[in-house]
Amino acid sequence: MRTAEIRQRWLTYFEDRGHTVVPSASLVSPDPSTLFTIAGMVPFIPYMTGQQTAPWKRATSVQKCVRTLDIEEVGKTTRHGTFFQMNGNFSFGDYFKEEAIAYAWDFITGSVDDGKLGFDPELVWVTVFHEDDEAREIWKRVAGLTDERIQSRGMRDNFWSTGARGPAGPCSEIYIDRGPEYGAEGGPVVDEDRYIEIWNLVFMQFERADGGTKDDFPILGPLASRNIDTGMGLERVAFLLQGVDNMYEIDEVFPVIEVAQRLSGKTYGAVEADDVRMRVVADHIRSAVMLIGDGIRPSNEGRGYVLRRLIRRSVRAMRLLGVEEPALPALVPASIEVMKASYPELGEGSDRILSIALAEEEAFRRTLTAGTTILETAVGSALSTSGPGKAVLGGAEAFQLHDTYGFPIDLTLEMASEHGVTVDETAFRTLMQEQRTRARADALAKRSGGADKAAYEALQTGLGAPVEFLGYTDTTARS
Ligand code: ATP
Ligand code: MG
Ligand code: MG
Ligand code: MG
Question: Is the CB of 198 under 6 A from ligand 1?
Answer without folding.
Answer: yes
